[in-house]
Design goal:
Layout lengths: L1 H7 L14 E5 L1 H4 L3 H18 L3 E5 L24 H16 L11 H8 L15 H13 L3 H22 L4 E3 L4 H13 L6 H5 L2 E2 L6 E3 L7 H10 L20 H15 L3 H10 L32 H10 L6 H5 L23 H6 L4 H7 L10 H34 L1
Parallel strand pairs: 1-2, 3-5
Antiparallel strand pairs: 4-5
Helix pairs in contact: 4-5, 8-11, 8-12
Length: 424
């Protein structure tokens, strides 16, 4: 994809591209269990390749998700050219709050001053100032997070989520309005079948379509979706496109290790016997329509994938309803609720589901209630939510507090209306 863009920007191109591109590389070695020496060797090769391309480039590590601000999980409207970035204003406000709190985070872990400044300020285009060695504490925290996840399927979904958040943060801080990914037709066909198996059928148009507008100010586009993996391999071979190979999380994993590997093997075997398999699945994804049609969903959004929260408020016979019922039954009702005693306005009846602490004080319950069906099913394989990056827990707490405040305001208004009606 980079070579195609480079060719489209040349003067000899029939239809010359009219934008200024930049390249971002995410080092995921810590999540894949690679040694620091191997990671340094891969990053060095990638830097030499990016220097030869000539585009502005940014090398970031996956550990930087532990220094992201909570505003990365919010949807910002598209701004006119020359306007002050709303996202940068939110990041600056977050950094000021962090400095006011002192050297300790809200969760208790220390954050270096340089680390906090790097989270809010765009990095220089000078390659010498990019992607320095990450603190050992962040690398250890990322390794513990992925080491605690039970299944490979959940690991790959979590890796994709954190990578998306990091790329979104880099695009916003550097002023990019579009993010181009190199997903081919074959990869999108596999992703479509995998998303169906993971319960993401409502979000297929966003996950596999040409454009993804769920983030508002940054649009994700997939210009390589019309080319198969074989076509990409032949192009790289015939035009001698340089590449850097790095093992992924599912490298050398058995076929049944995850749903992603199982769907990949299934479709590729069918493609060998029936060459139109991948194209048929891909053409099916083209017919999917976003709801609403402009791609900008209103209402609450999932805390991880940022799609519209496909919650089922009524106790209907759906998979989400059964999952919600199973999650709510993990804590028994309080004796006060069993006795049916009335509660006062502003009490915690709506959030407290058991005799223990309030659910708003439980990080796991606070995060789970703000996830869509697919993300909720995947996060069941994460034993402890305390290992998640702080920006996810902070945004979950903020949303929970806002929802509780709205409920209390509604209860106060209803109580005032009832009193006024009684007096009348």
């Amino acid at each position: 994809m980079v070579w195609q863009v480079l060719e489209g920007l040349s003067r000899d191109s029939a239809k010359r591209l009219r934008f200024v591109p930049g390249v971002v590389y995410v080092d995921e070695g810590a999540a894949c269990g690679r040694s620091p020496a191997d990671r340094a060797h891969t990053v060095a090769e990638m830097r030499l390749l990016l220097q030869a391309v000539g585009f502005p480039w940014h090398v970031v590590t996956l550990e930087e998700v532990f220094s992201l601000p909570p505003s990365v999980l919010r949807c910002f409207p598209q701004e006119p050219v020359g306007a002050v970035g709303t996202y940068k204003v939110a990041v600056d406000s977050y950094l000021q709050q962090q400095h006011a709190l002192g050297p300790e985070r809200a969760g208790g872990s220390p954050i270096p001053a340089q680390e906090g400044e790097r989270a809010g300020q765009p990095c220089s285009h000078d390659p010498r100032g990019l992607a320095g060695p990450q603190p050992a504490a962040q690398t250890e925290a990322l390794s513990q997070l992925f080491g605690s996840v039970k299944t490979l399927t959940a690991k790959e979904e979590l890796l994709h989520t954190l990578r998306t958040h990091l790329i979104l943060h880099v695009a916003r801080t550097h002023g990019y309005s579009k993010v181009m990914t190199g997903d081919s037709c074959t990869r999108l066909a596999i992703k479509l079948m995998t998303s169906l198996a993971l319960g993401r059928g409502a979000f297929l148009a966003w996950d596999t379509g040409f454009s993804d507008e769920r983030h508002g100010d940054v649009v994700v586009v997939r210009p390589m979706r019309d080319h198969t993996l074989k076509e990409v391999a032949f192009y790289n071979r015939l035009f001698a496109v340089p590449s850097v190979l790095a093992p992924a999380m599912d490298t050398r994993a058995p076929e049944k290790a995850s749903i992603h590997r199982l769907m990949e093997g299934f479709l590729l075997r069918l493609q060998v016997q029936f060459p139109s398999t991948v194209s048929t699945v891909y053409r099916t994804s083209e017919k999917l329509v976003k709801a609403p049609r402009d791609g900008r969903a209103t209402g609450p959004r999932c805390l991880l994938c940022l799609c519209a929260l496909d919650i089922d408020a009524s106790d209907s016979a759906t998979a989400f309803g059964a999952q919600t019922l199973d999650f709510s039954q993990t804590q028994p009702p309080t004796p006060r609720a069993e006795a049916g005693s009335p509660t006062e306005v502003g009490s915690a009846q709506d959030c407290c589901q058991g005799a223990g602490p309030c659910r708003r004080d439980d990080p796991r319950a606070r995060v789970m209630e703000q996830l869509c069906y697919s993300c909720r099913a995947n996060m069941k394989d994460v034993p402890s939510f305390d290992l998640l990056p702080p920006y996810i827990l902070a945004e979950a707490q903020l949303r929970s507090q806002r929802a509780s405040q709205d409920i209390q305001e509604c209860l106060v208004e209803d109580s005032a209306e009832d009193s006024l009606t009684a007096e009348t």
